[in-house]
Amino acid sequence: MKSGLSIREIENLLRNVSREDKLIKELRNDERKGVIRALEKWEKQQDEKEKLFKQYVEMSKYETQLNDIGYKCVAGVDEVGRGPIAGPVVAAAVILPEEPVLGLNDSKKLTVKKRNELYEQIMEHSIVGMGIVTVNESERYKIFQATKLAMNKAVKACHASIDHLLIDAMTLTLPIPQTSLIKGDQMSVSIAAASIIAKVTRDRMMVDLARIYPQYGFDKNAGYGTKEHINALKQFGATKEHRHSFAPVKDVNATRWA
Which domain holds residue 36? Predict the structure, then answer.
């Protein structure tokens, strides 16, 4: 039995139908190979969407609980760049829209392509605040306090009446109720969104630094102390973008000038 539609028409229609649509029942009786393939592809896409929606609901439990007790403007906060030996510390605070942003997860668990896709979605539909702490600042305040400073900057940059913060493994000295969650970027969609914004932003900054200092491979190592990075330090010395108080840089400097 045929549906009376061309394969191209069917593929176009499948972009905007649900499992309950009567077209799906009709297509299941269409024996054309092209229709069968199109329907199989659509079924896989639906399965993936349902899986991502279920994940989103599970990772929204803290936001939902807070909403239910009266906190309507909840921001997730996360940072990246605490461990590298070069580059800034970058934090983000994100207030997600009511419409789900599917696929949110710990930024480290996502591919570069997926991170960039989600970055664009989050930036377009959410309220986002960024906090950047330079190498000079992180050296002055030490890395733990520099991390808090970046987060504080991000929250203040949101320019929204935030009434609760969900923060990845940290508490801030801000007059806003907050919940600290260990591995929060895997447990909260808001923190996951913040982790994505922070990581993509910092990675792009490190790519820019790689153009200035190509010998260190910042575009590949993001400032972390890889073997290649340490070898470059030994050969060329440290730049102003390196954290001179961090052991690998300090040790190389001591050896070079001994």
Answer: 7-59
